[in-house]
Every structure is written in structure tokens, then in C-alpha cells.
Design brief:
This protein is of the alpha/beta class. 47% of the residues lie in helices and 15% in strands. Strands 3-2-1-4-5-6-7 form a 7-stranded parallel sheet, sandwiched between helices. The longest helix is centred in the middle third of the chain and has 29 residues. Keywords: Oxidoreductase.
Length: 253
Amino acid sequence: MSMTFSGQVALVTGAAAGIGRATALAFAAEGLQVVVADLDVAGGEGTVTLIRQAGGEAVFVRCNVTLEEEVQQLMAHTIAAYGRLDYAFNNAGIEIEKGKLADGSLDEFDAIMGVNVKGVWLCMKHQLPLLLAQGGGAIVNTASVAGLGAAPKMSIYAASKHAVIGLTKSAAIEYAKKKIRVNAVCPAVIDTDMFRRAWEADPRKAEFAAAMHPVGRIGKVEEIASAVLYLCSDGAAFTTGQALAVDGGATAI
């Protein structure tokens, strides 16, 4: 299915690996120019190399999304490179909790909220003026099925993803008449480097993860990328303020 993109520019944060890399590659495959942003320089440049090897166009910008000056610089680099911004996928995020709520630390709270909430807020804050200047566009934020319910032993992470959905819905209403759509994608367990590290530490987690999805497996990064591109495409022109679960049926139980 054609996503009806033409001569446009997409920005992806957290694009050095996993869902971010897969989505940057998918945007490029549709003919978009892509700004690849991440703290991981080697991974980010690796994503750009993969895009260029496939005949696409991309640039890498190192960015810490928790620092407003770096987010501002990211937007400036985007305009300097390609002159516009049409789509943004705010995907940078972390999950570092290991225990129940009362066992958490202030450092964990600040780190998770800093990247997952402040980072998304800062990116939208500085993307929206560019989209307004362009006459419209779309933003997709990475939330999680943890933002649609509970996540035992990941309470701070769950709170951060509930907050992402709140930011998403509020911005969607604020800018609905400006031809800017804002949605969130909510993955369940996806086959990423982060998941593989957890599986190597405890192989039982893989069995549990597969069992939590009625389809009987964990998700693929390309499946999340497809959802993001749909939400950015003209096919989703009447869709805004939504938190789309891409979860193998996990939240339907």
C-alpha cells in the first residue's frame, strides 16, 4: 500500500537501533528524507549508512532529548539540511526499573521521566512551530501498552507512558484545526536489543513475553514502523489524538 509521501522530511529520535531504526528505514523506503537522531553516534550513523545503501537520503544528528538546547539544535539541523519538517516520530525512551514501586530510586524516577516525558514534550514543543510554518504535518509519539494499563515492577515507566499519551491527546486537540495530527503508538513486547538483553539474563522472560500475546509471539520492529507510517500517512487523515495498541492482542484480554 502506498503511503502517499512525496518530497517530504521525517525526523526520528531514538533511531540508532530497534523501533527507531526500523521506522527511519521505512520512511526512507517511501522516499522521504530522514533526520536520524540519537545519543548513540555509532548506531545513528549506522542507520544513516543503511538508508544510503538502500538508495535513500538521511543525515545523523546527535541529540540528548532531555536538553532543550540540543533539541533546538536538532530542529535547526533539520531545517538546514532539508528546509522543512513534515513528520516527527518521538521514539527516544528508556526503561531501567528492576523492582516494585517502593524499591525504586529518585535517580530512576528522574532518568525515566526525563527521557520519556520531558524528552517527548521538548521535541513536540520545538517541532510544532516547524509544522505550523509548513502548513501541517503529523507527530507520532512512542508510548506503550504500559501506558494503557498497569505494568507491575515498572511503575515509573508505566507512569511515563501514561504521560506520553496525555501529552499526545492534549496536543492533538490544541492543533487539530491547524492540520497537525498527533498520535501515539503503543507497542507490547518487541524483538529489540533491549528485549534480547533481558532474555539473555533470564530465558524465562522470552516464554512469558510470548505467552502474554494472544498471537503467540512477540512483535517485530517492522510491525511498529508500519503503524507509525500509517499514522503519518494520508490514510490516517481523520485520525488524531489516538493511542494505537500494536500488541498482538495483549490489551484485548
